Amino acid sequence: MPTDSNRASLSAPDSVLHALLGAVFSGFAHPVIIKDAQLRFVHVNAPACAMLGRAAPELLGRTDDAIVPAAQAARIAAVDREILASGEPRAFEEAITTPDGEARHLLTHKHRIAPPGAREPLILTMITDVTELRHAERRQRHSEAHYRALVDLLPQVVWVADARGQVTEIGPTWSRLSGRAAEAAYGSGWESAVHAQDLPRVRRQWRTSVTSGAPLDVQCRVRAADGTFRWVRNRAAARRDARGRIVAWHGLLEDIHERKRAELALRESEALVRSIVESTPDGIQLLDAEGELLLVNPAGRRLFGAPTAADGQGRRWDRVLAPGDLAKGARALAQVRAGRVARFEAYVTPRERPGLCMDIIAAPVPGADGKPARTLTIWRDISGAKAARDATEAARRAAEAAAAKLAAVLENTLDCVVVLDREWRLSYMNANARRLLSLGNEAIGQSLWTLYPQEQNGVFADHYRKALATHLPVTFEEYLPALSRWLEVHAAPTDEGLSIFFRDTSERRRAEQERFQAQAQVFHMSRHDALTTLPNRVLLRERLERGLAELEPGAHLSVLTLDLDAFKPVNDTYGHPVGDMLLRHIADRLNGCVREEDTVARVGGDEFVVLTRHGGAAAEAPALAARLIDALQRPFDLDGVSVEISACAGIALAPDDGTRVEALLRASDVALYRAKAQGRGTCLRYVPGMDTPLLARQAMKVALKGAIARDELELFFQPLVDLSSKRVSACEALLRWRQADAGLVSPADFIPLAEESGLIHAIGQWVLRGACQEAVRWTDDIAVAVNLSPLQFRDENLVAVVAQALTDAGLAAARLQLEITESVMLDESAANLRTLQALRRLGVKIVMDDFGTGYSSFGYLRRFPFDKIKVDRGFINDLPHGRESLAVVRAVAGIGRSLGITTVVEGVETQAQLEVVSAEGFDEGQGYLFSGPVPAAQVPALLHRLTRRPPEAGPGTANETPQ
Q: Is the domain of 187 the same as that of 159?
């Protein structure tokens, strides 16, 4: 208000105007400042005083140069004069330091306004504190940078594709692997890096996954940065939305080139051994553990007269040896079973080749566990003296050749091989062993304990000594500190010492450990809420099942379901970070009210369940519920933001209210539903029959599903009248449901059910098509208005549905007005704004309904250029005598004129109300003074009647259906 010193300079109309502006903006949560044409303060609301650090009497009548430094005041005055001169609004953001030294970010909007009756224009300044928003944006950027750093560190290539299988994002490891830019892989650009022979198979498998939703797992070759091709394994899984539709694919591409090379080397090694066996002139037989012949090489078939492999199968070697040499064979077989190589001479029976003397070598073939599983025998004919000498020489040469070939096999095997004599000296190492042990040829002949003295009395030495002492192979896996590696070892004693086969299993052990940790983490995450770390619904059910199974006679198990009141406004007002912080504080308070053995679970966005066991006193559960509700009603301090909420609770007891999980949870939900109906802070225990209203509600929901098919839905229309011409400008479509056995059902009863069940999309399309088809029967100057539910904006096909309805009906887009409520702007505002802009491009008109009832109705006028705003009927009911309502109505009319937006009042029922809103300059009116809603068939008659009867004649007919 002006001070005494300048009040005389204001005329009586100006004083009234300034008082009115003060009444309008005094309740705003954000700072508001109004200046006159001389740039003097004529109104500052309480938030503005707090921001400037001065009381209103110290500010009113003064200019900025009396409040802030001269340079700053000059800049402010220059902007204000430019706005007064041009009439163009200004919006800018600036960083300031408050009187108490705190840095804040402010978003300032300035407008020139010309209220009715004012002698000169005014400057309206509205300021919004966006400090928390900027802090949240910085935290978001930090989180994204953290995620990107993690992706950069991964050795695998992380990639993302959309639901159609087109790559939209790929990690930096792709560029390091392929030498190509990440952008070149987007869409289907990755195909250019795949080997031409592998590409058709990869395409086929990827199309199958995208079509069916099955995970992808494919191996192929891709061109590396150096131009060579490397083997990779590409895996992907679909991410689905709440309705099970695929919204994206997340993939991981892993370099497996070295593993592939190892597999190829193993196959080549196997082929080499097979070539040796097939080409050697000695007879070779493979026997099972009992000495039964399993296979024989070509030389063996020729030697024993068996023309084919099948003819040699199934013969035991003791049936081949002469009777006098059977004992030699038995001893040799025993040595082989002990893991040692045996060599002896023996004659074969006359049945085979009489007088044939054979030099026989028998060696163990270890199985997967390292123990002898098969016996390999090598037979050479040494008959006759000369033949013996020749055979000896040939045997020497063959042995040398076999040794060379065996060494070649050992050098190509994937295992590390070390041979020790009985003095622990190294007599042989293959290449893999030399690389792993970091030893050269100079180590041959040295003692193992000289090379690794710290292991002489360690675990490895114990196993080796045991093998030599028992003459039995040993198999073990241990950690070798000297190499910082895990080794899997097979050690077999020989006549000369010890043969050791080992391999590095560190990566496998590490992978197993990581897999175990990942499984444990996944298991924990699958049973706990990620935000509060409380048990989720899965773990709650498990503990409830266990509690029911262990419930003793006379004891009770209580299920308390709590639902928070006013949690959504906290999210809407302060943002989701504050809402998440509030949920964590709530979890802490609930845990502080229960015992350690009790369970507090989060089962929904703002729904918690407490599971507790107690003795025979059933009153313990309501007492606990009361403590929980009281704890939640105390204010929460969330980083300087004080938040107050309340809660309701529903209680079910076992075994009184059920002995099964589903029955108890349902009973607790029913009790909660009834408690919420009675008001905040209410706690009720379930009693039989409590779910009757819910069952009725469910029955109505089921009936609603078939309402369209049964032709039970009807459209009524209520006219909107242009207050200057007194002609109907539009008709608003209103939905009615006429049940065969219950008559008309109130929209207030079935519209929430339609939104809850998802039927609102089908019903909304039906209303939209029907309204457009009815409107084409009216004259071209009358539009049709259709209300859209906020849930319809979640349908990505909404714009296409509207366009199709206009096309099918042949209705001009400019004749369709779509009415939305403030919640559309609150819920997913960025996506909904894009939808509103797409609808605007179709040519339809956008109307904000129930204007003035929400948190930020005025703010939304800046975010989207609405064609029309409808003032809620709540501001019209107490006109013409309600001063507060009159001030709001007058302010809305002025804003509409300033912004060029059509203004509408609904709920006009008396001539006095009509005169007030007409005087304030509203463009259109709607209400029973003109007509109530009427069926579609009566609209032509209604339009004809309204053109002949002025509104002063009274409201519509008494039999019109109320809105």
A: yes
Closest among 596, 554, 568, 661 to 669, alpha carbons compared = 661
DSSP β-bridge partners for residue 925: 721, 905
pLDDT digits (tens, 9 = 90+) for 886-934: 877 888 888 888 888 899 999 899 998 898 888 888 999 999 999 999 9
Sorted by sequence, the CB contacts under 8 Å of residue 366 that are 6+ apart come out as 339, 372, 373, 473, 490, 492
Q: Are residues 827 and 928 in the same domain?
A: yes
The predicted model scores a pTM of: 0.40
How confident is the model at residue 958, as a pLDDT? 33
CA distance 563 to 651: 12
Say whether both 557 and 630 belong to one domain.
yes
- Cα dihedral 655, 659, 661, 664 sign: negative
Q: What domain count does the chain have?
A: 6
Residues 468, 445: Cα–Cα separation, whole Å: 19
**How many CB atoms lie under 10 A from the CB of residue 504?**
18
Question: Does residue 523 sit within a domain?
Answer: no
Residue 624 lies in a domain: yes
Q: Are 337 and 320 in contact (CB under 8 A)?
A: no
| Parent domain of 225 | 154-255
Judge if 246 and 131 occupy the same domain: no
Q: Within this chain, do residues 159 and 78 fall inside the same structural domain, yes or no? A: no
Compute the distance between CA of residue 126 and CA of residue 34 in angstroms, rounded to an integer.
9
**Residue 779 confidence (pLDDT):** 92
Q: Which residue reads 């909304």 in tokens?
A: 764
Q: Which of 255, 284, 304 is the last residue of a domain?
A: 255
The residue among 135, 170, 192 that closes a domain is: 135
Query: How many CA atoms lie less than 13 Å away from 569 in the CB half-sphere?
Result: 10
Higher pLDDT: 312 or 567? It is 567
Q: How many CB atoms lie within 10 A of CB 756?
A: 12
CA dihedral 830→833→838→842, nearest 10 degrees, is 170
Residues 297 and 406 in one domain: yes
Residue type, 343: R
With 0-12 / 13-18 / 19 or more C-beta atoms within 10 angstroms meaning exposed / middle / buried, residue 316 is middle
Q: 3-state DSSP call for residue 371?
A: coil
Query: Both 472 and 618 in a single domain?
Result: no
- Tell me: do 221 and 276 sit in the same domain: no
The beta strand positions in 505-554, using DSSP E, are: none
- The CA distances from residue 28 to 56, 134, 575, 875, 894, in Å, are 15, 22, 19, 17, 17
Phi, psi of 157 (to 5 degrees): -95, 115
φ and ψ at 521, to 5 degrees?
-65, -45
Q: Is residue 636 part of a domain?
A: yes
Q: Is the pLDDT of residue 723 over 70?
A: yes
Classify residue 455 as exposed, middle or buried by CB count within 10 Å of its CB (0-12, 13-18, 19+): middle
Assess if residue 528 is contained within a domain.
Answer: no
Question: From residue 59, how far is each of 12, 124, 515 by CA, in Å?
Answer: 21, 15, 68
Mean pLDDT of 500-518: 83
CATH assignment of the domain containing 239: 3.30.450.20
The pLDDT tens digits of the residues spanning 269-287 come to 666 667 667 777 788 888 8
For residues 547 and 541, give the distance between their C-alpha atoms in angstroms, rounded to a whole number.
10
